[in-house]
Specification:
The protein is of the alpha+beta class. The protein has one domain. The chain has helices at 74-79, 86-93, 125-130, 175-183, 225-234, 253-262; strands spanning 2-11, 20-21, 37-40, 43-48, 59-61, 99-108, 111-113, 146-155, 158-165, 191-201, 213-223, 238-245. It starts with a strand and ends in an 11-residue tail after the last helix.
Length: 273
């Protein structure tokens, strides 16, 4: 469910000053695409899918940051947001890389997923379309637990998948803080915050068992690791403020508009034709 939305909001600071960034370097000699890595405080945390529209999605854990939450506007977020306001945008504008953002305030229900499990997108839906990684002979492995939160068809040949990706493993969460959120849900769900990317991708060749276009919306948590885990374990919804980077996403402006509309639809798993 979309609570509030603002399109093409200019936010952020120069990349060297931002606490989180996805740099866009030139491709190494002899390669078609440069590496695509999410950096937190200058350290690469995730290897992402390549800068192409035919490569499979990926958020492979590279490093564990010492501090995950950015601790921005904590009091407001703990109470829970009913709408996006200028104060919150200014606060996160001081840590995000300069870009145009689609700001989304969402309600979602997180389900914790372990790589290789029956709920793992990379072992099932992705394999059905791309097959296994030919280099290692196995599915892509994010090397970290993550949360599945939403999916819905966009048509017979497109399907949206949404994930919330923690910067550190949920096992690192302080159980006392998790219990505090579980015991005191409040009337408005506490709000987590994420830097988000939408990748619209499809293999160049139809060689899989289920060939269609994957819309992969990945929310990388900047604040709220304990909140999201508490919601997942208690089976309750959580509110998320998503800063969707319009320039780093592999998606057009029309596709970003379609995403906003789709995110208000009913949650529904893919049915193969």
């Amino acid at each position: 469910m979309v609570i509030d939305m603002q399109r093409s909001v200019l936010l952020g600071v120069r990349e060297k000053r931002a606490l989180i960034a996805v740099p866009t370097p030139k491709p190494p000699p002899g390669t078609a695409f440069p590496p695509r890595r999410l950096m937190l405080r200058g350290v690469p945390v995730f290897e992402l899918g390549l800068w192409c529209g035919t490569c499979p999605a990926l958020f492979n854990k590279l490093n564990e940051p010492e501090v995950a939450d950015l601790s921005v506007a904590n009091e407001r977020l703990n109470v829970g947001l009913d709408a996006i306001d200028a104060e919150i945008l200014r606060a996160f504008g001081r840590v995000l890389p300069k870009s145009d953002y689609t700001a989304l305030l969402l309600d979602l229900s997180p389900q914790l997923v372990t790589p290789g499990s029956t709920s793992d997108y990379f072992s099932h839906e992705q394999v059905a379309t791309w097959g296994v990684d030919p280099v290692v002979g196995s599915p892509e492995n994010p090397a970290t637990p993550y949360y599945r939160t939403f999916e819905t068809p966009l048509g017979q040949e497109q399907h949206l998948y949404e994930f919330v990706v923690p910067m550190v493993p949920p096992a690192w969460n302080d159980q006392q803080r998790v219990d505090e959120y579980s015991d005191n849900p409040g009337t408005t769900p506490a709000t987590a915050v994420a830097y988000s990317l939408l990748d619209v991708i499809q293999p160049a060749m139809d060689e899989g068992d289920d060939y269609y276009e994957h819309w992969v919306l990945s929310h990388f948590l900047l604040d709220g690791h304990h909140k999201v885990y508490a919601a997942a374990t208690a089976g309750r919804p959580i509110r998320l403020l998503s800063f969707l980077d319009e320039h780093i996403s592999i998606a057009s402006q029309n596709e970003l508009s379609t995403l906003v509309q789709a995110r208000s639809k009913k949650r529904q798993a893919r049915s193969r034709p």
